[in-house]
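Protocol step 4 of 5: obtain the predicted structure for the target chain.
Materials: sequence only (see below). No template structures provided, no constraints applied. The aim of this step is simply to have a reference model before the mutagenesis design in step 5. Sequence pasted as it appears in the construct record:
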Amino acid sequence: MEDKIKECADSPILSFPEFPNWEKLQKVDYAGSFWDEQDIQNLNSTLIYTALNLKEINRKLDETQRKKLKAEASYKQKIRRLILTTNGKTETEKKRIAEIMCEKDEIRILYYEQVIRELERLANSTRYDLEVFKIL
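Step 4 output (structure tokens):
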């Protein structure tokens, strides 16, 4: 047990997972679209494309929120079990050991939180684009 704790404490800088590339969702092919030509005939297709893009962003947002919820539940369960089963002199020491052993779970939760923030920003931007189309 002590070897595990020492190994965790001595580990090099934490490695974070790669964040998703949202370029496909952010990039709009403007060639032939309303934004490119200022052609009202293309407004409908651009509006449909933007609405479908927003649906895909919201689907990814829902999926990531579910993953975060599962990760949080797993983290809470794991840390409670570790606090109860860890050998420590005080409750504070047991809690600290459990937190060290759950660092990867904490990083995963932080990762999901960041992905959710990025998706929410992207969704808000796309909603704004849709509002512009409604005005036109």
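Step 4 remarks: The radius of gyration is 23 Å. The helical segments are 2-9, 23-26, 34-37, 43-85, 91-101, 103-135.
Proceed to step 5.
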